[in-house]
Amino acid sequence: MRSAKDFFRPLAVGAPAPVRDVPFRPSRMIHFFDPGNEKMAAKVPSIAPKVDVLLGNLEDAVPADRKEAARAGLVKIARATDFGDTQLWTRVNSLDSPWALDDLLTLGTEIGGKLDVVMVPKVEGAHDIHYVDRLLAQIEAKAGLTRPILVHAILETAAGVGNVEEIAAASPRMQGMSLGPADLAASRRMKTTRVGGGHPGYLVREDPAPGAGEGAPRPTYQQDLWHYTIARMVDACAANGILPYYGPFGDIQDVTGCEDQFRNAFLLGCVGAWSLHPVQIDIAKRVFSPAPEDVAWARRVIAAMGDGTGAVMIDGKMQDDATYKQCQVVAGLADTLAARDPELAGAYAAATEEAAR
Ligand SMILES: CC(C)(COP(=O)(O)OP(=O)(O)OC[C@H]1O[C@@H](n2cnc3c(N)ncnc32)[C@H](O)[C@@H]1OP(=O)(O)O)[C@@H](O)C(=O)NCCC(=O)NCCSC(=O)C[C@](C)(O)C(=O)O
Ligand SMILES: [Mg+2]
């Protein structure tokens, strides 16, 4: 690990200075598309204004014989499109694949100035981030970039989960982390065959009721397969000033299950999730924007708490320094999102006015 003094020094002569703080830009949905798929690529100009992050995916879901086409497609789309304040990200191929080096070199030199974040799959430890960190610094210097490209790790191997804290702390370039439930399940030898979500077999069953006869029904409750990993990821990210995300939900038709999975992640501290299909964009937008009534409540508590110390009662509930801080999280997020989303700004203002009556 570099010394504290060296941590914020560029890793190559001529590379831009690393960021001190990860800029918090709305990223409720990271919308995946295959830049080599002409039908999907044609939708980019109309989808870009509707999403917070647009991600050109080069890794899994892109067939091996179309990897170069996807890379070239992303360069073409990035050059031709004005993304406004929508972020452009990419997911490069895994570092042990035949394509990762050319993905980083080509995208960094050709469209590095437009690329906000590089998502790196199957990160196993800090060593993977250190490799990408130095390489990106060399590429930035070569391309004359003035702003560093940030790095996002996917948590999708058992080793990665074991090393999650060191990954989060590995570089000032680290922007955040997403859960990759499909590869993680395979790596852990879990017995699921899905991309995220629950499983009906992972449950707890109520004890038999006293005196109930044999065979009397005993309710079961499906449990969350991902609670442990998401909670670990959130703690590692929060402790290192970077952002946690739930990843993909593969059952596109199960919009209710998707919304529940996203909301669990939101409540636990995640700032966004991936949308794999246009139908998931609005789900993520709804879930990862705090509800207007929650924002109104948060603003009410903040107003009542004055300098944020002491204790007050509001509607029979005790508020103190710690609830004040929670309310600042909700209200601060709402302010950031409202600045990008006028419809949301209107809904927050109306709810706040209503609550004040
Ligand atoms: C699921 C699929 C095959 C269904 O695609 P489809 O064409 O069968 O669906 P559809 O409902 O018929 O599509 C309707 C229209 O929407 C378009 N469309 C459809 N999707 C998109 C999109 N994303 N962006 C833009 N447009 C899209 C599609 O082209 C079509 O256009 P049309 O009306 O002109 O015919 C398709 O949506 C897709 O390929 N999505 C992206 C999949 C992907 O990126 N997977 C990798 C991420 S998950 C992962 O990697 C795991 C992880 C983290 O690594 C780990 O857990 O380990
Ligand atoms: Mg994966």
TrEMBL record:
Residues 32-194 form the HpcH/HpaI aldolase/citrate lyase domain. InterPro entries: Aldolase/citrate-lyase_domain (IPR005000), Citrate_lyase_beta/mcl1/mcl2 (IPR011206), Pyrv/PenolPyrv_kinase-like_dom (IPR015813), Pyrv_kinase-like_dom_sf (IPR040442). GO terms for molecular function: lyase activity; magnesium ion binding. Residues 197-217 are annotated as: Disordered. Its cofactor is Mg(2+). The keyword Protein transport does not apply. GO terms for biological process: oxaloacetate metabolic process. Substrate binds at residues 91, 156. Keywords: Lyase, Magnesium, Metal-binding. The keyword Lyase applies. Gene3D superfamilies: Phosphoenolpyruvate-binding domains. Pfam families: HpcH_HpaI. Mg(2+) binds at residues 156, 183. This is Beta-methylmalyl-CoA/L-malyl-CoA lyase. It comes from Actinacidiphila yanglinensis.
